[in-house]
Amino acid sequence: MLQNVPTRQTIEAAHMLIAPYIHRTPVLTSAFLNNLSGTNLYFKPENLQKIGAFKARGGLNAILSLTKEQLRNGVTTHSSGNHAQAIAFAAAKVGAKAYIVMPENSPQVKISAVKDYGAEIIFCMNTPEERERNVQEVIARTGATFIHPFNNYEVIAGQATAAAELISDAGVRLDAIFAPVGGGGLLSGTGLSAHYFSPGTRVYAGEPEGAADAVLSFRSGKIERAPYVKTIADGLLTYLGDKTLPLIREHVADIFTVSDTEIIAAMQYLWERMKLVVEPSGAVALAALLKNREAFTGKNVGIILSGGNVDLARLPFGKEV
């Protein structure tokens, strides 16, 4: 297992390792959203990725990096959905048992997918403490190897491949890349890829106002908790880790918060104008760009659409927030 921050070579090796198992998602554009934002937008639609989210990248890299001995008793993690699916998917690929701790209020679409990949689900209350306690119980009971959802360098290296592909495939030099931030695995990986593969490309994050811990941590330099947690973006509720925070502070230019109303508007643009099924968390990066569009007028901006595992029975369009 990696003990150090992923290097350029680490990210390139991760990409080679996971390439047979993932989609190289396309780079898409939208004349409507370019006109609306006043920028040239290049979308990386990870909603089209295996398991419907970028997290397939980090989950696969982490599991494919384990030894046979580490896989012998299976793997475990805690997640509200997308990382849960990633670990269940990757474990199935290598024939390992997966034990997934999920909050009891996780979206049904994500619960069903984890079950479909053959994992055993252990439900818990939706607090970081209960997630951790249940994972420790699984480890004590089974001897499974724990793969942290984001505070893990193999996971970060895998997530970094999304931005590496975007930089390579956009066809222009990107002035900026926007990514959402929850635990920071994608954001720290995006920052590293920009640093190694496109120096001068600045990285920004979008974060829900109703889960605004990363912006506080970014400013204070220590892991903070959100003042309150209430957002439609259920995939971004976790706070940063001791591996992701330093990378974000070093390689990310700023973190912008957005309201649920702004998230839903961005989500609706993606559905209606680009015909992309994107979940609320996946629309946060676009929402952040649109809210701060004046600062990026005329620039080439990459947008990572992180996932598309939306519960179709709970679409927010036309509802009061």
UniProtKB/TrEMBL annotation:
Start and end residues of each Tryptophan synthase beta chain-like PALP domain: 19-307
Gene3D superfamilies from the UniProt entry: 3.40.50.1100
Cofactor names from the entry are: pyridoxal 5'-phosphate
Kindly give the Pfam families that the UniProt entry links to this protein. PALP
Name the UniProt key words of this record, in alphabetical order: Pyridoxal phosphate
Top-rank lineage group of the source organism: Bacteria
Name the record gives this protein? Threonine/serine dehydratase
Recorded source organism is Dyadobacter sandarakinus
